[in-house]
Amino acid sequence: MNVAIIGLGYVGAVTAGCLAKLGRTVIGVDSDPYKAAAIAEGRSPISEPGLDELLGEAVARGRLSVASVGAAVESSDVIMVAVGTPSARSGSLDLSAVHRVVEEIGAALPHDGRFRTVVMRSTVLPGTTDEQVRPRLEERSGLRAGIDFGLATNPEFLRESSSIRDFFDASRTVIGADDDRSAEAVRHVYEGVKAPTFVVPIRTSEMVKYTDNAFHAVKIAFANEIASFARAHGVDGREVMRIMASDDRLNISPAYLRPGYAFGGSCLPKDLRAITDRARKSEVDVPLLTAALASNTVHFERGVQLVEATGARRVALVGLSFKSSTDDLRESPAVALAERLLGRGYELSIYDDDIHPDRLRGANRAFMDAHLPHLGQLLARSLDAAISDSDVVVVTKVWSDVEGLGDCMREDQVLVDLAGGPAAWAERGDRYIGIGW
Ligand SMILES: NC(=O)c1ccc[n+]([C@@H]2O[C@H](COP(=O)([O-])OP(=O)(O)OC[C@H]3O[C@@H](n4cnc5c(N)ncnc54)[C@H](O)[C@@H]3O)[C@@H](O)[C@H]2O)c1
């Protein structure tokens, strides 16, 4: 298999060396004559452990060479784009190098019946490949993506300084493709690398890359804010974070990383308020922690807006406590949602099999009395009773009773899913609205 790599910077040079090592024949292209000459001589144009040796060996074995875009495209099965996508002044993505390169590739795609796949390896925002790369390739080549040539994405997750190890010991390979042939072409490129492979729609793959980097940035900022707060209180933040990170059930795990509705309950909002209040008084800036509360409020409002946008006036709220298998109503976003809808004149019925108003006690009872004093009148005895007279059903948590909800709803009822219920719910088509999916 012949692979062209256009753009031989950090990503392109490493990919070129590693693919050559895997046995592919690689043709590199770079508009910078210094980088092109270095690669052609088997030298690394960048400082990266092990790369000089890898490129030297690849060139010596005849597995890596440098050419023009035209020649590289002509003789390749897969054409990877790895040019830079830096920030423009406004912070937006500067796609000028991507535009230039894909126009050149489009113009160079031969009409010879050979199926070549163009693969975006550069980091681009969701929709870029579809809206900016595909039309340029099609227009310049006069060919159709997915039919005459392939189009795919393959985001890069390497870390500079350990990029060669990251390539061969990858945590995963992500392939974005909207047709099978394009996906297969990229799969072949990685034959020999053992890593879980995700083949997803192009937009999903583009989003995954940004999600990774946003998460990494949030993790670092979080650790630094916690450590700054800790230091101001005579505590070693390194020790705190070490202990925090040792919990692989709730902390370093998929827990709390499943999108749903706003957080609530008797601890998270209260403790975040306490720590951010103390930070303010101790003159420690913790913008990320402060923003978590603001973010939660914004997310709560998204739920309200989804219900309002249906135009319905009769709402069934399924789930009232802040999570399944508890009757704790304190700071439950579902209670706030109920209050808001009642305040705006909606007809509301509520179903939650964890809630029995006569059994609520103490602070929980006081919270209910303050926020939903007429809860008893709103609560339905069964799911059917709750939804029968409603136009829209809003789910804030999922438990076994609720999983089959899609089957017992009328055709005309809208299901607003704030909890991430079973995939079958989406079969309602435009009568199903998810908050983040
Ligand atoms: N550096 C990283 O650690 C890393 C990791 C993952 C993803 N990425 C992403 O990968 C992409 C490339 O990043 P990089 O760090 O390798 O960039 P880079 O600036 O090091 O390399 C880009 C290369 O593309 C070349 N180029 C630009 N226009 C060209 C053209 N018209 N024809 C041929 N070559 C051209 C440049 O000369 C340069 O050598 C970016 O989208 C980046 O966000 C980078």
Give an overview of the whole structure.
The protein is of the alpha/beta class. It has two domains: 2-201, Rossmann fold; 297-434, NAD(P)-binding Rossmann-like Domain (Rossmann fold, 3-Layer(aba) Sandwich). It contains 18 helices and 13 strands. Strands 3-2-1-4-5-6-7-8 form an eight-stranded mixed sheet, with helices on both faces. It has a five-stranded parallel sheet with strand order 10-9-11-12-13. Helix 5 (96-108) links the parallel strand 4 (78-81) and strand 5. The model has no long low-confidence stretch (mean pLDDT 97). The structure holds nicotinamide-adenine-dinucleotide. Nicotinamide-adenine-dinucleotide binds at residues 6-12, 29-32, 35, 82-85, 97, 100-101, 122-123, 156, 158, 160. Residues 6-12, 29-32, 35, 82-85, 97, 100-101, 122-123, 156, 158, 160 line the site of nicotinamide-adenine-dinucleotide (NAD).
Question: Can I get a quick summary?
Answer:
With 437 residues, this protein is of the alpha/beta class.
Strand content: 5-15%
State the separation between the terminal residues, measured CA to CA. Answer: 37 Å
CATH topology of the largest domain: Rossmann fold
Percent helix: 40-55%
Q: How many strands in all?
A: 13
Q: SS-based structural class?
A: alpha/beta
Low-confidence stretches: none
Examine the secondary-structure arrangement and name the CATH architecture of the largest domain.
3-Layer(aba) Sandwich
Q: Report the average pLDDT across residues.
A: 97
Total tally of structural domains: 2
- CATH homologous superfamily identity of the largest domain: NAD(P)-binding Rossmann-like Domain
